[in-house]
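Example 3.2
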Amino acid sequence: MATPSAIQELVNEKLATFERLQPEFEACFHFVQLVHGQQRFNKFPLVNAVRYLHSLWVCECKDRLLSIYRNIERYEGRYCLELLLRWQEGETADVVDFLNRKLDMLPFADLTRQISEALKSHKDDGLARRLIDGRGVLLNRGMNLMQALDGIFSLPEEQLISEVQLACAQYGHHPSQIERQLKEIDSQ
């Protein structure tokens, strides 16, 4: 059983680490929200796809630091690191699959039916407005996916790998760094 001083030391250590991580976490969390539909990007260059994976990893680090249940991996940070590592080796298909899975949740027909029903049945409670806003967020999310895929598919393979490697280095994800980051995640 841990002593009270050992527990306090662990708490202080986690708080200090979170304080160092907080500015980057806030920026990353905000970027994830934008990609998930709070903003429609007119362009989504390749560096933004790397930034998105990096941001999900940072959000996962925050969850683990704050002892959010490890069996709930809402950000899939470890998998994002694995994707960044493999992408630098030229494996793009899994990245495309991941982006598609994360961003393509577009039940527009069902949502439009719910909006029609809400306009008829819930005239004064704001439900229709919230549904319409939600549909706009989903539309932005889908458009962001298409922009991200366009940024990936528009480059020849050699240039794609080169740009992925540069973007990964920019965000601190050189293959040797990723190996260390994966070990850190596994040790938590």
